[in-house]
Amino acid sequence: PGDTGVLLRKMLDDEHHLNNIPFKKENTFCFDSESFRYLVARKCGIDFDEYQKPDYIVSWNTSVTESIRLLKFIQICKPYNLEELLSLRKATLDILMLARPLMETLRLIVYNWKLNEAKLILNHMVLNSNSIDIEMCTNCAQMNVVEVGPFWLTQYQPSILNNNTNQHNSCPTNGQHFLIEFNVTYEFVSLPAGLKNERW
């Protein structure tokens, strides 16, 4: 592949999810651009002298040989079920979407358990969740530590730049941060009268 081979190898090395793709003669196919330029030129009515034609014939034969080799390679490749791949992808997304709600629910249970251990049975923690209408991630969001009852909690809020644009637009897409789809806050409130004697 000439100079292109160095660039292609670097791209495969930089993209970690492509590391399992081999870069060998068996799965690399090179097409000579001269043959395609010759075809376009002929369609446009451009004539070539007898000294140029042999070079283009060699170039065309090279591309034909590579095309046949590519088709033979495709024939021996094992097909994969696209539906199975999409199902795995959907399952992954579903798990990722459930991770934070489950974590926040577990955290709420722990907070109220700690209140019960501390004999603060007249109060409890409640969770409020509101969807966010702008893109925000853990990398760009402003993180505040707030006091809620006897706990110090971390809360996220959008970080706005001086030009009133969302900070997330400037975030690098390097996979090192996680999107925040809901703004979660906690409140330390009193129990309703009927439930004050039903604490576990």
Record keyword descriptors for this entry.
200 residues; 2 domains; two-stranded antiparallel ribbon; 4 helices; 4 strands; 42% helix; elongated
Topology readout:
Layout: H1 3-14, H2 33-43, H3 53-76, H4 82-117, E1 123-131, E2 142-148, E3 151-157, E4 182-190
Largest sheet: 2 strands, antiparallel
Q: Residue ranges: pLDDT <50 for 5 or more in a row? A: none
Q: What is the tally of beta strands?
A: 4
Mean pLDDT: 76
Number of domains: 2
- Class of secondary structure makeup: alpha+beta
Number of helices: 4
Alpha carbon gap, first and last residue = 71 Å
Helix coverage percent of residues?
A: 40-55%
The proportion of strand residues reads 15-25%
Cα gyration radius (Å): 31 Å
Task: Report the oligomer.
Answer: single chain
Q: What is the succession of H and E elements?
A: HHHHEEEE
Strand order of the largest sheet: 1-4
Give the overall silhouette.
elongated
Structural account:
With 200 residues, the chain is of the alpha+beta class. The chain has 2 domains: 74 residues, no CATH class; 109 residues, no CATH class. The protein is 42% helix and 16% strand. The chain contains 4 helices and 4 strands, in the order ααααββββ. The strands form 2 sheets. It has a two-stranded antiparallel sheet with strand order 1-4. Strands 2-3 form a two-stranded antiparallel ribbon. Strand 2 and strand 3 form a beta hairpin. Helix 2 packs across helix 3. The longest helix has 36 residues. The radius of gyration is 31 Å and the shape is elongated. The termini are far apart. The model has no long low-confidence stretch (mean pLDDT 76).
